[in-house]
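agent> fetching stored inputs for the protoporphyrin IX containing FE docking request
agent> found them:
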Amino acid sequence: MTQLRVGSWIPTEGDTPYTRLGGSEAVRALAEAFYDAMDATEPALAKLHPLDEQGRVSRGSRDRFGMFLIGWLGGPQDYMATHGHPRLRMRHARVPVNEPMRDAWLRCMAAAMNARGVEGEVRSYLDARFAEVADFLRNV
Ligand code: HEM
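agent> prediction call returned; pasting tokens
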């Protein structure tokens, strides 16, 4: 987990975004709220993902991202154990990530964190981390 200093908070071994959000259930709920926001407000971004019969982002995508987030935020590394190293740029190589898609992704994550009441130090930390990685993933 990259030691990014935002404001005054630096995550430590026992004090991570994962623990501050409330553990696996809370992180999975954040991932769910993220894709619900995407389905409701960002159709162009949603349709880049595998969709289910109702045209919503698939259960498989939601579960993979939820598992990834748990490990990435400092929780159990089940994603790495199951799917290997995230290699995010490689896994997004077939996805056209331009500025509008980057911004759409960040709007969905902001909406999800609002819906889940994520605020304070952990919120400013996550806002900065997500913005940094989303920009890093731009590939067009
Ligand atoms: C910047 C805009 C982004 C776009 C347009 C985007 C789009 C996508 C799409 C379309 C998929 C589904 C790929 C598939 O199943 O075929 C995906 C998967 C994924 N994305 Fe993103 N993404 C973005 C940013 C991010 C960020 C910032 C993160 C991490 C913080 C992230 C983490 C993931 C993960 C972990 C997966 C699942 C990879 C796998 O297990 O196959 N994405 N993304």
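agent> quick read of the result: Residues 45, 48-50, 61, 64-65, 68, 83, 86, 88, 91-92, 95, 97, 101-102, 105, 130, 133-134, 137 surround protoporphyrin IX containing FE (CB under 6 Å).
agent> awaiting further instructions
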